[in-house]
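Narrative progress, year one. The postdoctoral researcher (J.K.) led the effort to move from monomer predictions toward full complexes, under supervision of the PI. The following entry was the first complex the group processed end to end, covering 833 residues in total.
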Amino acid sequence: MMRSHEAFVRHQMLPQVPPPASQAGLVKWLRENLFSSLSNTVLTVLSLLALWWVVMAAWPWLSNGIWTTTSLKECREVLQGEVGACFSVLAERWNQLLFGFKYPSELYGRPTAAFLLLFIAGAPVLFYKSFPRYLLLVTAAYPFIAYWFIWGGTILIPVVAALGLIGAMLVFRRLSNSSFATGFFGAVAAAAVIWWIGGKISGSAPGFMALQEVASRDMGGFMLNMLLGVVCVSLSLPIGILLALGRQSDMLIIKWICVVFIEFIRGVPLITLLFVANVVLAYFLPPGTSFDLILRVIIMITMFASAYIAEVIRGGLAALPTGQYEAANSLGLDYAQSMQLIILPQALKISIPGIVNVAVGLFKDTTLVSVISMFDLVGMIRGPILGSTSWNGVYWELFGFAALLFFVVCYGISQYSQWLERQLRTDHR
Amino acid sequence: MTSLTDPPAGSFRLSMLLNDTRYRSYTFQFIALICIISLFSYLGVNLVQNLAQAGLNISFDFLGNQSGYDINQRPIEYDSQSPHLRAAMVGILNTLIVSFLACLTATVIGVFAGVARLSPNWLLRKLMAVYVEAFRNVPVLIWILIIFSVMTAVLPAPNAFRGAEPSASMLWDAFAFTNRGIYAPKPLWGDGSNVVVIGFLLSIAGAIYYRRYATKLLYATGRLLPMGWPTLAILVLPSLILYYLMGRPITLEYPELKGFNFTGGVNMLGSLIALWFALAIYTGAFIAENVRAGIQAISKGQSEAAASLGLRPKRIMNLVILPQALRVIIPPLISQYLNITKNSSLAIAVGYMDITGTLGGITLNQTGRAIECVLLLMLFYLTISLSISAVMNMYNNAVKLKER
């Protein structure tokens, strides 16, 4: 039916009208995010109150902070009863906090250089897309350079250690074409021979290109935390992979060895393992050997971390569909090849967040060595610094500083891992 | 790996032990076994030699000897005349006490923070993110030491509460925060109090039964009984009535200042508080992340489907999201409890006498029985961990999605 009469027909579009003031810009954002309902408003007000309380407590303390005195007493004199932090302890004991109190002060440049080199060596691995592959050689050489810088002594020791590994790798490459097992045992034999001969040579020339030697027991401060963290994480990663593969293996004896090891280590706290390193391990070594405490601690923390990493990687291995294993087998790859080329790259990719969690947790746990009277950052604060007459009672500044250092490192690592996860995500979105 | 063809008969050569996949695994296992056995025998021989040299032996007789040291928190009867075994028992109980308190508090904090991280309120979300990141990324030992310093160095001494114009005062006349710990009122169980307690336990059972009945009725007939108020009434009213009927048998003993210290009430040591709260806040941050991940793991379609069925937001949470999210949340939650128990061994840093402080600390140092003490210590923690993982496996099997 046609309409015979049209009262009104609009012929042009209405001009666009800006949204109402309450539906745009800041006001809208505030309404939606902070005051959307009564309960939300209450929460906002409570949060603001809490924030205000924290800021009001912390701000005068921070802004009145004093950096230049030489003892807590002087700080109190300068402050004259006002609230204020005594940051001078950080300024005065800076080197002790970072390097411990026994590391020779004229050699501070060496660990610092090793620390800076860590970034150069780490970059090709961490940001592997933006750096050429040959820079990985720097990474491979880093442990030996860092050892030489931090501990000193003749350069022959790290060089021999590196040569042994290179020799083992070459032998493995040659022999593993025929069989993995011959390659493996050949490599072990080659490394042993090179280290034996090299040990003789470096023992006979202790002064060759030698830096001043520093004993392990002189390490301390945040340097010790970094040292333990970096060494133990990098050592525990390959061991953890082997343990995870062993736990998945069909060979019953190897499987049960791995299961017992992993479950035992995961069942006890790190402190008891550190007790083992401190007081028990000596009983199990040949009579008369004096083993460095730091080395014993590294062994124990590495065992601890590798059990946890093994569980993370086992999760990654279990998450792979069986088709991947079957596809690798049907291509005719043997066990080593299929693991190297097909399974591990995918499993490790899945396990990255877990591995990073373990690494961060381990780095935090390095503070536990202060319990067995090693002077890491926390040990330095609790022992020599808080125990001294001039700084007895400066709790907040010192512990706050320690917390800040750990926060920066751990937060940085976890942010990196999230970035890496995004980089590695190959699924279609 | 299995091979596809049968071996030709009588063709076994020695090299097949290394090259044939059928025999290679036996070779490897044999070598591994030899390595392990030789490693352990090497360690054992060294141990025997070392012990002989030091004139020691392995024996647990020392556990019966008089301990000779005092413990500042004694859940069971103990003094310095008691044997080391008794000290270890006190330590075990102290470990369990602090772990239990910390687990409870960490769960409350963690669930609150995890839910708050998903709140529509921007400010609360950000504050909780700051809390989680700040506490996850700093070693728990540092938090323990910070709270312990607050407890011992910042809080006033008991004598600050004295005098006509004291510089410190008690909270509600019931709680005193001093550098010797927190003093709180202690319940005194008088005659007839067990009737009240039994009544309370019965009313808990009654409340559970009522809720079961209401749910059954709902599923059977669709009739919805009120849940919240009746539950509260069943829980509170009978106990309250019994309490007054029995002549108010349960009273509170308030801490009082006598001489230089408080007497009466419960004294919670600074080290206990430090350990408890540091572990709770630290682990709470991890639990918050687990809770958030668990809730986010439930796909949005689930809540949309529930909403399209006409459920209200609270019921969507209770009936659809939470049952599914709990399946994701509880396993990591239990392993966080395990972590708390293991981390409670850090008590030794603040002098709280848990099992690490008694057996692994003073007993070890006094008797010099390092191997035995550390062995027992590990055994204790291992027992706890294995039983917790057994519980977790049972739970996982119970809630596993039944796939057909």
